[in-house]
Amino acid sequence: MADVDEDLPQPTESNPPDDAEVDDEVPDFRLLSNFLKSNGAPGKIPKRGEKDFEPHPTAQQASTLEASRQAMHDAVAVTRVHVPKNHEIAVYEPSVNMAYVDKPRNTHYRTMGKAGTLDIRWPAIHSKDHDDGGSEQRLERSEEQQDEESRPSSDYGVPMSLQGAYATFIGFEASRGGSLTLERYTVFAPPRAKLGRAYWEIPPESLPPLELPSKHWNSGFFSKIWRRLSAPEPRHPHGRLASGPLVTPGLYRSYNDIYRLLQIIPSHDPTAPPTLSTADVPSEDEHPFHITYNVWKPNTPFKKTAPGPPDFYICVVSARDTFLPTSDQLNDLLATVPYDPPKMDGNLYQKLKHGYRNVIIAVVDQGITSFLRVADAGFGVEKLYERKPRGAGGKRGGFRGRGRGRGR
Amino acid sequence: MAAATASPPPSALTKLISAHTPTDSTHPAHLHHLALQIQHNLQHQHLWTALTIHTHSPLAPYSPLPRPLISGLPPQRLYVHPDEQVELLAREARRRREGKKGEGGKGEEKVDREKPPPEREWVLPTHVREKWSLRRFGEVFEGIGVVPPEPTESGMDEERGATSGRGERQEQKADGEVNADVDTTGAVRPEGTEREGEKPESAANKWRTLKRVVLATLDDDSTVVYYVVHDGIVKPRQN
Amino acid sequence: MTSHRELFDPTNLKLAIHMRSLTETLHLHQEDERHYPDHPDEAKSAVKMADTSVSEPFPISLIANRYLLYDINTITYIRRKHCICGVLIGGLPQAPSQNVFCGIPLELMPEEARLLVEEGHAYIVEDVEAHMAGFLDMSEEERNAFMSAVESQGRDAAKAKKRRAGDNKERALKEKNLHRLVQESQTRQASASPDATNTADTDESLFAYPSPPASPPPPRASSTAPGEIFGITPSTSYPPLTMSVRSTNQPLPAVPRSYPLFRHLHSKGYFVTPGLRFGCQYVAYPGDPLRFHSHFLTVGMDWDEKFDLRDVVGGGRLGTGVKKAYLIGGKEENSEKADEDDDIRAFSVEWAYM
């Protein structure tokens, strides 16, 4: 075959497809129990398991599967317990659909970074108290009880199960028009848990993105420009475009001058202040793309009062309820995050990849999250003709950069 | 100056298309152009042989196909079912072991990978900007058998087919014979030959039980990509 | 893989820190070890496990338009018996600082919930309603009865913990060792390039492990006082809620147009999971995804639904890159096949390697 398609990923022995990496959302739980049994000793690495292509009627395959299933069962069956030393009890308050803690013992409410546990209780009231004034009474009552020194935990209501917590804080929340969806929680929980000490914040005004949150602007310079200009500077083609020639006869001392004259296609300028495409306040349904979480990396010194600019802006959407964003939606989403230009002395491809603004879109498909980074790449900003050829030795590849393959 | 405005001479492909597009076909001309361009690509870029363009189903009642299809023979086997692959590898391993015993290890490197013989394939010419539906794929499969019919003697000669026989074909075509298949040589096959081709060749390959077509998709820059489409749930190859 | 030496490989540093935080957390929670397969007896005795058999029909919780399961026995049961996996979306209490292994609840696709309901294995429960009614209007007697059950569970959990205390001391020792190793590696890491661990191009790098915090956490006591009662947060609300409350008027879960193909694949023994991460609707596995690679990236549609041919080419290409076939299919209209489940027709697409 004369023309082998070079672009198609061709699985070969030397370059097998990275199945283990991409294949699976389903890890082998046998590895978890080994890992825990080792109590974190090095070597027991919880990586994806080896898998087979298809079932065969072999006893070995069946027993391996059985072991995996049993390990999964055992791991997931563990009940949540609270040791007395760290037993933190919170009481659920239906009127606000929240839980409150009388006397915080742990500090994780302040940081939300430390892993901790909470024993949430249903309010311990009799059904006869459950009338209109009920919630206030309960609040008063619990305030009184705060002063009691040693209150036995049985004085609280019965424990709220995990199931109860999902029913109230996500299910009941939805019926009250609240904003915590299962998708948003699904995105929040695992990486937060994994990071251990990451900091997450729900932006104060997550909807609509019409008012640019001024604190997100890292310098007053851009906000001034933003106010001054209502639209990005139009790049009007010159008169020569109508009648030609594009390159008027004359003396040119640099190819760059000619290239500039040949540049006839207007392009987006990501360094200009953003404009919003939507005029009206859109509803959540019409405008599902807005920032859900501001996220700070755990290693940044973090103060709740002065958090500094977030490291990531995450927009959570549900795969089944949301279509691919239109360019208007992407534009408006990117307009709500601060200007974050690439390092100007960087490699061309790194600059394109980094872009001038960026957002992470977390798409949740029935519990499985895919993170996509969307950047406002400045293709029109990078003038290929202005690039310097690489130094000595680069006979042919001067304009190629480090990209793979054909450099197109 | 005048020379600059004159059109360049037509390319081989343009000549082929203009010479072989029927004017009275059941199919619109652009589908014939598509088939001819794919056929040209198969012949010259991928070295297929025995290429034939089919306008009508080789199966009774020989009704018109949804669009002209191509059948042809690739230079080497295009598709090996994963189960057949397992069998081939097992046979190879056996031969290697036997070869080791027989020649005292001398010939072990020499044992060739067993190459399954090439098989005739159906090719479905398409353009990447088309919209399709499941129904349309279903209709394509309705019109074909598992294995394309054997080409006629004249069909084997694809060299001639690309350049001659135009007038002859058009004459024949004017008869409006429903069950006629036109190959690129312009020869019209007698019905009997068609039935001959229908004879289940699949006996030669017990793994070939489902219909399949090679989906040839043309892009505006003349790139053609080829994908195998099976009529059913077929597990993927592992090579 | 198993040597201590490897720990100091820069690429493993993230893991080392990860493991430390995991051990810390384990310690912090003074987790008992019921999940270790080599202590099955404790597993049974620590907290009374529900009978592992599941009686049908079982409840599926519906909250905010999502279908969830909280009972581990049901989760295991439907996997074995009905080839339905769902997706575990919760955390694991014994290993909270990682996101490779997840725990309860299990989210079911509406397709999965619908199939289970249609075939009579399950029914849908409006969880908000059930909880507000069941817990806010609980009688004092009910409350006391349930509390004493929870307390006895908590007492058992504390006892089990105590039994394992000896082992824990040993573990604590090991852990100390690990702390030292990690701290050594930290000092080495300080001299290395700070971006060394930040080059991977996956979502791993997005939430890459950070450089470690400056001070190690204070040590915690690992012994348990006698007569202690652990607090318990049960996974499910049954009991005190009873499963007898069956709402018969729940409509069948609403499913997308791809449901017929989903059902067809399931009936052929395939395990079908959500497919967005492969750019498709479903990923179909020939057996339990715990043990097998998937075969198909699947898109289901109506028989006359129009699609771009470019999508077929793209899907075939995407699938071939990961050794899978792209499968499109749907319910064939005007088909002469009588059997309802038999009129699904699907086409498999693979790159032709030419």
TrEMBL record, chain A:
<protein>
    <submittedName>
        <fullName>tRNA-splicing endonuclease subunit sen54</fullName>
    </submittedName>
</protein>
<keyword id="KW-0540">Nuclease</keyword>
<keyword id="KW-0255">Endonuclease</keyword>
<keyword id="KW-0378">Hydrolase</keyword>
UniProtKB/TrEMBL annotation, chain B:
<dbReference type="InterPro" id="IPR036167">
    <property type="entry name" value="tRNA_intron_Endo_cat-like_sf"/>
</dbReference>
<feature type="compositionally biased region" description="Basic and acidic residues">
    <location>
        <begin position="191"/>
        <end position="201"/>
    </location>
</feature>
<keyword id="KW-0819">tRNA processing</keyword>
<feature type="domain" description="tRNA-splicing endonuclease subunit Sen15">
    <location>
        <begin position="209"/>
        <end position="239"/>
    </location>
</feature>
<dbReference type="InterPro" id="IPR011856">
    <property type="entry name" value="tRNA_endonuc-like_dom_sf"/>
</dbReference>
<feature type="compositionally biased region" description="Basic and acidic residues">
    <location>
        <begin position="100"/>
        <end position="119"/>
    </location>
</feature>
<feature type="domain" description="tRNA-splicing endonuclease subunit Sen15">
    <location>
        <begin position="37"/>
        <end position="145"/>
    </location>
</feature>
<feature type="compositionally biased region" description="Basic and acidic residues">
    <location>
        <begin position="157"/>
        <end position="176"/>
    </location>
</feature>
<dbReference type="Pfam" id="PF09631">
    <property type="entry name" value="Sen15"/>
</dbReference>
<dbReference type="InterPro" id="IPR042777">
    <property type="entry name" value="Sen15_fungi"/>
</dbReference>
<feature type="region of interest" description="Disordered">
    <location>
        <begin position="93"/>
        <end position="119"/>
    </location>
</feature>
<comment type="similarity">
    <text>Belongs to the SEN15 family.</text>
</comment>
<feature type="region of interest" description="Disordered">
    <location>
        <begin position="145"/>
        <end position="205"/>
    </location>
</feature>
<dbReference type="InterPro" id="IPR018593">
    <property type="entry name" value="tRNA-endonuc_su_Sen15"/>
</dbReference>
<protein>
    <recommendedName>
        <fullName>tRNA-splicing endonuclease subunit Sen15 domain-containing protein</fullName>
    </recommendedName>
</protein>
UniProtKB/TrEMBL annotation, chain C:
<keyword id="KW-0255">Endonuclease</keyword>
<dbReference type="InterPro" id="IPR006676">
    <property type="entry name" value="tRNA_splic"/>
</dbReference>
<dbReference type="Pfam" id="PF01974">
    <property type="entry name" value="tRNA_int_endo"/>
</dbReference>
<keyword id="KW-0819">tRNA processing</keyword>
<keyword id="KW-0540">Nuclease</keyword>
<feature type="domain" description="TSEN34 N-terminal">
    <location>
        <begin position="59"/>
        <end position="127"/>
    </location>
</feature>
<dbReference type="InterPro" id="IPR036167">
    <property type="entry name" value="tRNA_intron_Endo_cat-like_sf"/>
</dbReference>
<comment type="similarity">
    <text>Belongs to the tRNA-intron endonuclease family.</text>
</comment>
<dbReference type="InterPro" id="IPR016690">
    <property type="entry name" value="TSEN34"/>
</dbReference>
<protein>
    <recommendedName>
        <fullName>tRNA-splicing endonuclease subunit Sen34</fullName>
        <ecNumber>4.6.1.16</ecNumber>
    </recommendedName>
</protein>
<comment type="function">
    <text>Constitutes one of the two catalytic subunit of the tRNA-splicing endonuclease complex, a complex responsible for identification and cleavage of the splice sites in pre-tRNA. It cleaves pre-tRNA at the 5'- and 3'-splice sites to release the intron. The products are an intron and two tRNA half-molecules bearing 2',3'-cyclic phosphate and 5'-OH termini. There are no conserved sequences at the splice sites, but the intron is invariably located at the same site in the gene, placing the splice sites an invariant distance from the constant structural features of the tRNA body.</text>
</comment>
<feature type="compositionally biased region" description="Polar residues">
    <location>
        <begin position="183"/>
        <end position="200"/>
    </location>
</feature>
<dbReference type="GO" id="GO:0004519">
    <property type="term" value="F:endonuclease activity"/>
</dbReference>
<dbReference type="InterPro" id="IPR059049">
    <property type="entry name" value="TSEN34_N"/>
</dbReference>
<keyword id="KW-0456">Lyase</keyword>
